[in-house]
Amino acid sequence: MQQIILQPQTPDELRLIKQFAKVMKIKTIAVKETSAKQKEEELLDRIERSARQVKAHLDGKIKLKSARQLLEEL
Questions:
Q1: What is the pLDDT of residues 5-29, one digit of tens each?
Q2: Which residues have C-beta within 8 Å of that of residue 64, sequence separation ≥ 6?
Q3: Is the CB of residue 6 less than 8 Å from the CB of residue 17?
Q4: Out of the domains of life, which is the source (predicted)?
């Protein structure tokens, strides 16, 4: 069956869509959108984690694979 993505702009629109789906017995899945702020924080966290890994590698605490080694695994 074909999927439809609806993006209500107000709480009333959301309520109406939910009521319609319930009456028509349409299966619904709610997906929460992540804000730009959350996406930015996640990106910064990943960058910081990567920087810590590089520092640990430079300090000799861990051994990282080269890009060539990673490609050879594929």
A1: 888 999 999 999 999 999 999 998 8
A2: 53, 54, 57
A3: yes
A4: Bacteria
